[in-house]
Amino acid sequence: MFKTFLAKFCAAAAFIAVFSHAFAAVDVNTANEDALRGIKGIGPAKAKAILDERTAHGPFKDASDLSKRVKGLGGHTVEKLQGEGLAIGPANTGAAGAQAKAAPAATGAQKNGAPVVVKK
């Protein structure tokens, strides 16, 4: 009985490990080199090119912007990378975007066009 439980537990753990990685999105605008290299199809040179372009010219707006700014990343390649878990632009911000949108309401009223932060 213990062996059966152990075998099922190991199988479930392996299943979760494999599929949880597949659903973890890596945001191209916040990821470091190691995170980018974790995406199938991005090697050290491409990760460096993405980081260099992002550092020099700011965040990527969308998939089209990424493919235009990073040499060697055409539209088809970017689509494949998105299928592998690469997230690009504001549409892929998820909970962080919702918090950022809610943050101004939590800061209080505005005075002379500048937000007034209320400390608790």
UniProtKB/TrEMBL annotation:
Q: Where is this region: Disordered?
A: 101-120
Cytoplasm as a keyword?
Answer: no
* Cited InterPro entries: Endo/Exo/Phosphatase_dom_1 (IPR051675), RuvA_2-like (IPR010994)
Q: Where is the composition biased (Low complexity)?
A: 101-114
What keywords were assigned to this record?
Signal
| Top-rank taxon, per record | Bacteria
SUPFAM superfamilies the record matches: RuvA domain 2-like
The stretch of residues making up the signal peptide is: 1-24
For whether the record's keyword set contains Signal, the answer is: yes
Q: Name one Pfam family in it.
A: HHH_3
* GO biological process terms on file: protein secretion by the type II secretion system
Which GO cellular component term is one of those annotated? type II protein secretion system complex
Q: Which PANTHER family match?
A: ENDONUCLEASE/EXONUCLEASE/PHOSPHATASE FAMILY DOMAIN-CONTAINING PROTEIN 1 (PTHR21180), ENDONUCLEASE_EXONUCLEASE_PHOSPHATASE FAMILY DOMAIN-CONTAINING PROTEIN 1 (PTHR21180:SF32)
**Under which name does UniProt file this protein?**
Helix-hairpin-helix domain-containing protein
